[in-house]
Amino acid sequence: MLSLAKHTFLLKEGFAKYGFAINTLGVTNSYATKSNNAAKNIVFVDGVRTPFLQSGTTYKNLMAYDLARHSLVALQRKIKFPKEIVEYIVYGTVIQELRVSNIAREAALAAGYSDRTPAHTVTMACISSNQALTTGMGLIACGVYDVIIAGGVEFMSDIPIRHSRRMRSLMLQANKAKTVGQKLSLLASVRPGHFVPDLPAVAEFSTNETMGHSSDRLAAAFGITRKEQDEYALRSHTLAANAQRQGYLSDLIPYKVPNVDQLVDKDNGIRVSTLEQLGKLKPAFVKPYGGVTAANASFLSDGASAALIMTEEKALQLGLVPKAYLRNFTYVSQDPADQLLLGPAYAIPQVLQKAKLNLKDIGVWEIHEAFAGQILANLKALDSNWFAQTYMGKSTKVGTPDLSKWNAWGGSLSIGHPFAATGVRLATHTANRMIREDQQFGLIAACAAGGQAVGMIMERYPGAKV
């Protein structure tokens, strides 16, 4: 048997051979490489999306997987990059298709990307593809990868509907039953109530309140009238129609739906109406006094989006001219009961502070429009000293952004809002608008279920073209 002294000597010899240092108190690793904390420039090369369609229309017989695949194929065809350069793919989705739990991976395989390219799916409600983008930014910043595709997809035309919990329990028991008698006994216990389906939640889990009710309460708290909400909705649809007519929505890639003759080449929710027509609609949630209607709220939509991001160094090596730098981002959370949709009012000042910018520096604003009342409430909060002092811990208000630069091509109220696809749509519109409007900085903000929100800063790339 080896003595303790001899055993210790052999351990030291072995550790020394393989590059480890050892002392009498324990073992310490000695690394040959050093951490490089130098910041990398991360660029947004370009983004694409399917047309955003109202749920239950032309896409109704497809799957989310089909739309995600199209966005990945369209991105590669538009930019013309070799698929093998993509090192990682991350997609957002909110309501998952049961058969495709990791839609990022399945869509990537179907789109012809390498089976050696890892992919994962994230969810963060309406900011899921923002989370996909910033997850990609983090992987690049840490030096894990250089080239990433980030995207998102949502398909509300076909949502997973489960049997009731009691029925599911019986079915699981039946699967384990070994005799005919046991199975018949279970069958005899079935009652009509077992057949009531378990639908996906339309209310906040923590408060059991629908988002429409939250928007009505928020609008009431800030004194926003029904007419103001209708006026904002009309603005969104009018600006979107103008952008569509002028060809500014160039991120949209037409889609040929199988067994449908007409090519889908535009968003189908854009409808310019009149204030008189909007005023005739009845409140959808708080009746009869609420301000939220079918016309001034975002509608259930189907669609997918994708963007190529990478280090600036890699883009130059590949001969690509990016559209923008991805600069700063932040996520915020607040009370989901009283401030569910007020996230942008928190995220905007925080991300401006991180970027050392102010309101006047922002030439392009792209803000997710969940409800017209929600947008107007956030604008009032930003321009309120009381809100700044009470909730933000600031001495003075942030102020009101230049609304001539705010969602100039419309927004989710008009273009559509496939939950997990909106974030990349906002980023691509920000990049394209900065180029067309000759602006240096753009700011993205969006609220999400759970009382969360995102704020992001993008900067136009020198020499960028639409």
From TrEMBL:
Keyword Signal (UniProt): no
InterPro entries found in the cross-reference section: Thiolase, Thiolase-like, Thiolase_acyl_enz_int_AS, Thiolase_AS, Thiolase_C, Thiolase_CS, Thiolase_N
Keywords: Acyltransferase, Cytoplasm, Fatty acid metabolism, Lipid metabolism, Mitochondrion, Transferase
Enzyme class: transferase
Subcellular localization: Mitochondrion
Assigned GO CC terms: mitochondrion
GO BP: any one term: fatty acid beta-oxidation
Domain of life of the native organism: Eukaryota
Catalytic activity, EC: 2.3.1.16
Keyword Zinc-finger set for record: no
GO molecular function: acetyl-CoA C-acyltransferase activity
Primary site of residence: mitochondrion
Pathway: Lipid metabolism; fatty acid beta-oxidation
Ranges of residues in domain Thiolase C-terminal: 322-460
PROSITE patterns, alphabetized: THIOLASE_1, THIOLASE_2, THIOLASE_3
Positions of the Thiolase N-terminal domain: 42-313
Family statement drawn from the similarity comment of this UniProt entry: Belongs to the thiolase-like superfamily. Thiolase family.
Protein name: acetyl-CoA C-acyltransferase
